[in-house]
Amino acid sequence: MDTERRTGHIEIRKLRKRYEPHDEPAVDDIDLTIESGEFITLLGPSGSGKTTTLNMIAGFVQPTSGTIRLNSRDLAEVPTHKRNFGMVFQNYALFPHMTVFDNVAYPLRQRRLPREKTRTLVGDILALFGLGGMESRKPDQLSGGQQQRVALARAVVFSPAVLLLDEPLGALDRKLRQALQAEVKRLHRDLGLTFVFVTHDQDEAMFLSDTVAVFNKGRVERVGTPGELYDDPGTLFVAGFLGEANVFAGSLVDPTTYLWMDRKWRVAGPPRAGDTVLVVRPEKVRVFDLESVPEGWNSTPAVVTDRSHLGAVCKVDMTFPDGATGSATMPTDAAVTVRPGESVLAAWEPGAQAFVQPERA
Amino acid sequence: MKAGRSSLYALVFLIALLVTVPTLFLIPMSLSSGTTFQFPPPGLSGRWYQNLVEEPEWRAAAVTSLKVAAMVTPLALVIGTCAAFGLLRLGRRLRTAGFTTLISPLVVPHILLALAIYGTFLKLDLSGTLQGLVLGQTALAVPFVLIPVLTRLQGYDRSMTSAALSLGASPLTAFRTVTLPLILPGIAAGAVFAFVASFDELVVALLLQGPGATTLPVQMFNSVTEEANPTISAASTILVVVVSLVILLVQLGWIRTDQKAGLHGH
Ligand SMILES: Nc1ncnc2c1ncn2[C@@H]1O[C@H](COP(=O)(O)OP(=O)(O)OP(=O)(O)O)[C@@H](O)[C@H]1O
Ligand SMILES: [Mg+2]
C-alpha cells in the first residue's frame, strides 16, 4: 500500500445545521477537534445529529454555519469528490452492477492510476480483508459480512486522509458484529488513519475508540476517552447513556457533605460548580445486611426486587427510598445471600461516586 | 397447490389467446390472394406486401411513421427522464401536482387532447407538418417515459451516489457510472413505450395530417374509408411485427441487465 500519506486532523468550529423548515437545529453549534490518526466515535441516541455531522464532514450536507478544517484548510469550498475522505455506509452502498474488483478499483480509476498498479492495489487489499478469489463476484453474491468488508476495502484502498463510518456494522448480527469490530480496530492500528465512527451502541464505542464524543439533541455533550467518560461522565445524560448508573439527586450542604433524603454522605473530592447530581456505577455498589456497612462508606436503605445471574457477575435490582430503581453488580458468590423482597443497605466508597450536571431542559 | 398452479397457467394462456388471436388473423389475411377481407383466404400471395412497397402513399406513410417515432422517442426520453429527476427533488405536494400534470395525457380523453393540439397548432401553422406531428405525439409519449423512469429512480438508493462522490467521482461521473446504469432498464422501457406510443398513434396524427405528414395508421384509416383491400392487413402486420420486435428485444435485454445488476423486479 501507499505509504506516503498525510492523515487528517479535523477542526470543527461552531458547526450548525438547520434543516428547513424545522426550528430546532439538527446540529447545534458544535466544536470538536479530531487529532490526526485518532479513532473518534460519535455516540448518541437516534436523531441526536451524528449522521448530519458526519455528512457535513463528508461534504454531502451543507452546514448552515460554522467551519470544518482539514489540516488547517477550510473545506467549505471543497466538494465531496475532492476531499479524499473514505466513507463506509450502513447499507454498504456497494455498486450492484459492478463486480467486487470493479467496486474496489472504482476510486483508483477516478484517480487515473495505471492499470497494473490498480490491479496490484486491489489484489492486496482484497487479500488483506480475506476476500481473495471473490474479485469477479457481484455484491449480491456475498454475505453481509463480506459485503461490509468490500465496502471497507473500497473506502481505504485509495489511502484517504480520513475514514468516515456511519453505523457500518448496524445491519449485522451480534457475532459477526463483534468479529468486524475487531477487524475495524485492527485496520485502524495497521493504517494509522484518522477514523470517525458513528454508532449508537455504547459498547461498540467503548471497545473501538480512542475518543468518544457523546451527542445529545444536536450538541456534543462531552468528549473524552472511554475511561474518562465512564468514571467521570460530567452530565447525567452521559452517565445514563454510557453504561448504567444509580442516580441520586440531592444537594451539597458543605464541601465534604452531600445530603440526599435524610442521608448524609461523605464527599471525597469537591465537585465542579453545577454538578449537583450524584451517580454511582452498579459495580461500585455493594449490598450489606442492615448495620454491617464498613466504616466510611456512604449507604442508603434499599429493597431488593430481583437478582439475576449474568455469568461471571450477578446483578441485584433494588428500589431506593425515593422510589427510584437502581442496581448493583457483584461477583456471584458475594450475592448468594441476597433475596428478592429483602431490605438491605446499598453502599459504596465515597471515592467511587461521581458528580454530574443534571439533564438540560 | 399443484392443481392451483396449472389452472393458473391455463387461465394466463387463455387470456393471452384472447388478446393475441384477433391480431394473428391479420397475418393470413395479409397473405391472401383475394381482394376482400375473406377468411380463410382463397389462396396465398404476396401481392399486398408488394402493393405496400410499390404504392407511393403507403411507402411514404411507413417512412413518415418511422421518422416521427424516431424523433418522438429521444425527445420524450429526455423530457421524461429530466422530469423524473426533477419531480424527485420536489416536496411531496409539488411532486404529486407535477406528476399528475405530466401524466394527464393518459387520463384526458384522447380526442380532447387531439382537438386541443389541433386547434393550437392550426394557429401556429404547425398543422400538417412533420414538426407538428412530432411535438403533438411527444406530449402523449412523455408519460410512458416518466412512469418507468420514476419507478426505477424511487428504488434507487441515493447513498450509491454519495458513495461514488466520496470515492472521488465528480457528480457527472457518478451519474454516468453509477446512477445511469442502475436506472437504464427504466429508460429502456420508456424508450420502447414512447416509440410504440408514437408509431401506432392515430387520433392526433389524423387531425394533424397533411401532405408529407401522413403516418401509417392514418394511411390505413384513410384507406379503409376509401378502397378497402388487404393492403391494410399487410400494413397492420408490419405494424404489429415492428412493435412486437422492439418490445421483445428490449425485454430480453432488460432481463439480462436485471440479472447483471442483481435487481429482481419492482
Ligand atoms: N434531510 C433531512 N431533512 C430534514 N431533517 C433531517 C434530515 N436529516 C436529518 N434530519 C433531522 O435531523 C435530526 C438529526 O438527524 P441525524 O440523522 O443526524 O441523527 P442521527 O444521530 O444520525 O440518528 P440515528 O442514530 O437515528 O441515525 C433528526 O431530528 C432528523 O429528523
Ligand atoms: Mg444516523
TrEMBL record, chain A:
Gene Ontology MF terms: ATP binding
Coiled coil region boundaries: none
Entry superkingdom: Bacteria
Record Pfam families: ABC_tran (PF00005), TOBE_2 (PF08402)
Swiss-Prot/TrEMBL keywords: ATP-binding, Nucleotide-binding, Transport
Domain ABC transporter: 10-242
Keyword Kinase: no
Entry keyword annotation includes Nucleotide-binding: yes
Native species: Phytohabitans maris
Protein name in UniProt: ABC transporter ATP-binding protein
PROSITE patterns (UniProt xref): ABC_TRANSPORTER_1 (PS00211), ABC_TRANSPORTER_2 (PS50893)
From TrEMBL, chain B:
Localization, UniProt: Cell inner membrane; Cell membrane
PROSITE patterns: ABC_TM1
Keyword tags: Cell inner membrane, Cell membrane, Membrane, Transmembrane, Transmembrane helix, Transport
InterPro entries per UniProt: MetI-like, MetI-like_sf
Domain ABC transmembrane type-1: 62-251
Pfam entry (one): BPD_transp_1
Topological relation to the membrane, as annotated: Multi-pass membrane protein
Residue spans crossing the bilayer: 58-87, 99-121, 133-153, 174-199, 232-255
Family annotation (PANTHER family): INNER MEMBRANE ABC TRANSPORTER PERMEASE PROTEIN YDCV
Family statement drawn from the similarity comment of this UniProt entry: Belongs to the binding-protein-dependent transport system permease family.
Name assigned to this protein: ABC transporter permease
The organism of origin for this protein: Phytohabitans maris
Taxonomic lineage from the root: Bacteria, Bacillati, Actinomycetota, Actinomycetes, Micromonosporales
